[in-house]
Write a structure and sequence with these properties.
By secondary structure, the protein is an alpha/beta fold. The protein has 20 helices and 29 strands. An eight-stranded mixed beta sheet has the order 17-16-15-18-19-20-27-23, sandwiched between helices. The protein has a five-stranded mixed beta sheet with strand order 3-2-1-6-14, sandwiched between helices. The protein has a five-stranded parallel beta sheet with strand order 8-7-9-12-13, sandwiched between helices.
Length: 687
């Protein structure tokens, strides 16, 4: 089948950038031949995704010497001289979000499970209606309007794209679910004026997914049959102990492709140019994450931070959990981060001083000018601070569904990480955002950085040629983009105290032995293509993975593979706690940047005078990781004037003292390429 596939273009259309990859036969295998990236054309003035694809394809044509475009159009099919392509495969995350309302019986059971299910694709949760609210109204006493009237009025103003009804344990009571169905039915009629100026009432039959008690299906369908486009799936919470989310997830993904994907500007042209359907990026990334886990027997976490959305996928043999936050990103979705963590939650990751007002202005300017690249080092650090918070939000959503902390393979994607000028900056952002624990039977975990977006390329190819998908991921992604092998020792200790001794012996080379102290990050270079043996000797009270405190552990032979950064020891502790003093915190962040090679020398920011800004309210302690933020607001005596470094440190010290499921067909096709995973050694490599 690979011979018939020939040359094709895989286009990933994002809300900010469009990536195009040329795939063709090389020595009988499907390989990446060219790659280019350009600004997406889904917004005004072009409003056609194809224009961005043509621009990136023209760049590939110039780089490879192949003629891929003629008269402003893709040259199709491929000629005998290998010019042109046979087809275009498109995936996108730029079609927008599906506005969703969840109605459920109990907020802590069915509504929570419905929220987990809604994170299978790009959704925006507008409202969650539960019968708990009705019980609270009864407890509070009579109101001007009934609870049902208030809910109907609210839903009428929201106008969601779809409604998900959940609740009722299997073979349980049906009256409560039926009540929810009638509330949804009351929101279908809408009043309007026709061409003859007569007032008319019409019924808006919006899509409704019923994922509740199967005993109530007939009554729910009867209540909604003439007022909605209803789909019935298996109960997503059949019992208190069991959540069955896959049927609801698949239906939400199908509904997104039906309702939202057609909104992508230029999608009609994309569909004409390819045999494969246009799919979402989150769909194909989840597919490949699950496939890689099944193929290797490892526990895989994929993290993708984009301009508009953040998506995390965890997969292990027999387990799969997606968490797609459709409104959380680093450009269009940064307003969600501002609303959630505030400017103070973002600036805690910055190695330079900046007031909340100034930071907020920079962020809002970024929303207004989304295609502007970072103009200086400070803009770059702000972008990575946003990425940290997006990763934390996505990982929090993932952990709310299941314990996923045992992953031993991390694949990071997204424009900010892929475009990081130094690999050490990308790794520090990942470690700060996800705080990997490494406290399982595999104490070292691999980090890969997908700088070319080849993971979604593999997923896009899966429906056309599973062998081609596997080859591209194996040869062009996994062999070329390992970022680091990371060890996280566990144990309490004061910053500066010895935590462990590390020895790295390179196969065919020398060895290096270093000491690691609490609060430090240490990097041991190990070039890509080289292998080494790693020995860890922790002090008493410090443990490595599942070993006993103080027990030394070692990899087997040359199990540790080289990468861009080599081996990294993160001895900063878990959970990660930033210094409460703002000056010390900025100094510590700079030390970590230097340790990973992202910066050199002393910080240029610590000796600079800064202009203090008045802050209307004291900064509250950050909820994440329990750290206390102590950025000092200006007093009336210092407001509006430049203050010295000594005054700033004194004010900060004073403040610190006062502060307290995937498409079955695609996955089955990929499974045909899988061999039984080999038994793994201590560090999860070959054995």
């Amino acid at each position: 089948m690979a011979e018939r596939l020939g040359a094709l273009l895989v286009a990933e259309i994002g809300s900010l950038f469009t990536r195009v990859t040329l795939i063709d036969q090389v020595d009988g295998e499907s390989r990446m031949v060219g790659h280019a990236e350009t600004t997406s054309s889904v917004e005004a003035p072009y409003q056609n995704a194809l224009y961005g694809i043509l621009e990136a394809t023209a760049q590939i044509s110039e780089l490879t010497g192949r003629q891929l475009i003629r008269d402003g159009q893709l040259l199709m099919p491929q000629s005998g001289e290998r010019d042109g392509v046979n087809q275009l495969v498109a995936i996108t995350s730029a079609a927008g979000t599906m506005a969703l309302v969840i109605t459920a019986i109990a907020s802590d059971v069915s509504a929570r499970s419905a929220t987990h299910a809604s994170r299978a694709t790009y959704t925006a949760l507008l409202q969650t209606v539960t019968l708990d609210d009705a019980a609270e109204q009864v407890a509070l006493g009579p109101a001007d309007s009934s609870w049902i009237e208030r809910q109907v009025e609210t839903l009428l103003t929201l106008r969601p794209d779809a409604v998900l009804i959940a609740g009722g344990l299997e073979r349980g009571a049906v009256d409560a679910v039926n009540r929810l169905a009638h509330i949804v039915a009351l929101t279908a009629p809408s009043n309007g004026v026709d061409e003859s100026s007569q007032q008319r009432q019409k019924v808006l039959a919006r899509p409704v997914i019923y994922a509740g008690n199967s005993m109530a299906r007939e009554r729910v369908v009867a209540a909604l049959s003439d007022r909605s486009e209803i789909s019935v799936v298996d109960n997503l919470r059949p019992s208190l102990e069991l959540a069955n989310l896959d049927p609801a997830r698949q239906e939400l993904s199908r509904l997104y492709e039906k309702q939202i994907l057609p909104r992508l500007p230029g999608i009609a042209a994309l569909r004409r140019l390819g045999r494969a359907p246009v799919r979402t990026v989150c769909d194909v990334e989840g597919l490949m994450t699950r496939f890689l886990a099944e193929r290797t027997g490892r526990r895989v976490l994929t993290a993708d931070v984009g301009a508009s959305a953040t998506a995390l996928f965890y997969a292990a043999p027999g387990r799969y959990h997606p968490a797609v936050l459709g409104t959380t990103g680093v450009v269009y979705g940064l307003t969600e981060l501002l609303a959630t963590v505030g400017a103070h939650g973002i600036r805690r990751w910055l190695p330079f001083a900046i007031g909340e007002r100034a930071l907020t202005e920079r962020l809002l300017n970024r929303v207004l000018r989304p295609q502007t690249l970072p103009a200086d080092r400070e803009d770059l650090y702000i972008e990575h601070a946003l990425t940290r918070e997006a990763l934390r939000a996505g990982y929090k959503a993932l952990r709310d569904e299941a314990d996923v902390s045992d992953y031993d393979w991390l694949i990071a994607c997204g424009g900010t990480l892929a475009h990081a000028p130094q690999p050490g900056l990308a790794l520090l952002t990942i470690l700060d955002g996800l705080e990997p624990a490494g406290a399982n039977d595999q104490p070292i975990f691999d980090v890969y950085l997908d700088v070319l977006g080849l993971l979604p390329v593999g997923g896009a190819l899966a429906s056309l040629d599973p062998d081609a998908a596997v080859t591209v991921v194996d040869r062009d992604l996994l062999r070329n983009m390992p970022l680091a092998s990371v060890v996280v020792p566990h144990g309490e200790g004061r910053p500066g105290e010895l935590a462990l001794e590390v020895e790295l012996s390179v196969v065919g080379g020398g060895s290096e032995r270093r000491s690691v102290r609490h609060g430090e990050i240490l990097r041991l270079p190990l070039a890509q293509g080289r292998f080494g043996r790693l020995t860890l000797r922790p002090v008493g009270g410090v443990r490595i993975g599942a070993a006993a405190p103080g027990e030394a552990v070692s990899s087997e032979g040359g199990d540790v593979a080289g990468s861009a950064l080599g081996v990294v020891i993160d001895a900063r502790g878990r959970p990660l706690v930033l210094p409460s003093d703002a000056y010390q915190r900025r100094a510590r962040i700079w030390e970590w940047l230097v340790a990973l090679g992202a910066e050199r020398g002393a910080s240029p920011y610590l000796d600079k005078e800064v202009v203090s800004e008045p802050i209307s309210e004291p900064i509250e302690a950050a909820a994440l990781a329990g750290e206390v933020l102590a950025e000092a607001p200006a007093t009336s005596a210092t407001a509006g004037r430049r203050i010295s470094l000594e005054e700033l440190k004194a004010e900060e010290a004073r403040k610190a003292a006062l502060s307290p499921e995937v498409p079955v067909g695609d996955l089955d096709a990929l499974r045909q390429t899988v061999e039984a995973p080999k038994r793994r050694g201590l560090f999860g490599r070959r054995k």
